[in-house]
């Protein structure tokens, strides 16, 4: 796996055993340390979910991993092949869906490349549509197709289902679970939904005070059943870590 290294601290040695390796990462905005000595390792093919209260720095971390923010201290190893999907699908309104999927790729790939990715997310029938005619769920699937054509070793998802209605959200979660199992790439999913995190992830992280403050391995078999008492126990533990009273939330 080719690796990108950024950050002023140069670390030698192989990171082949990890898809992501972050050491001593800090990011400061206007004198305020949003990320403060963060350590993180993600194994190749591992699905990691990242929880944390609003404003704790999740999107900041994801942007750094995506290479969109290099104003950092510390060291970041990520695969060269990585792709990102955000909450807002960010499609170019003047380009048809299939052209959006190929946007920014080198060597002008042919339409068939976009069609294969659209097929994978169940959207091939909308290849010639204009973005403004897509439903929220379709736009999010187009955004996923755009990530998939990059054949990422690391897929970075920032609350990708946050704007979807409940039913569409469940379908989109299932799709991401399937894509991950088929592709075998590492995934880092930022979400505010504890249930979504426990449904999908191998490991759930909680970010607080600029670091990964807590982590839980989710060793439940897949597909996961939210009615499983073990599921409820893990969920309650994470809600507790997030400072949410689980009994009050269920009421
Ligand atoms: N470009 C920026 N300039 C100044 N402050 C920022 C910038 N980006 C993020 N922040 C601040 O950093 C903190 C973390 O933001 P963010 O990573 O978006 O949080 P989260 O995604 O966890 O909700 C917030 O207080 C936010 O206002
Ligand atoms: Mg965010």
From TrEMBL:
Keyword terms, alphabetized: ATP-binding, Cell membrane, Membrane, Nucleotide-binding, Translocase, Transport
UniProt-listed Gene3D superfamilies: P-loop containing nucleotide triphosphate hydrolases (3.40.50.300)
Keyword Metal-binding: no
InterPro entries linked: AAA+_ATPase (IPR003593), ABC_transporter-like_ATP-bd (IPR003439), ABC_transporter-like_CS (IPR017871), ABC_transporter_ATP-bind (IPR050166), P-loop_NTPase (IPR027417)
Residues covered by the ABC transporter domain: 20-234
Pfam families hit by this protein: ABC_tran
GO molecular function, one term: ATP binding
The keyword ATP-binding is assigned to this record: yes
Top-rank lineage group of the source organism: Bacteria
Entry protein name: ABC transporter ATP-binding protein
Organism for this UniProt entry: Streptomyces monticola
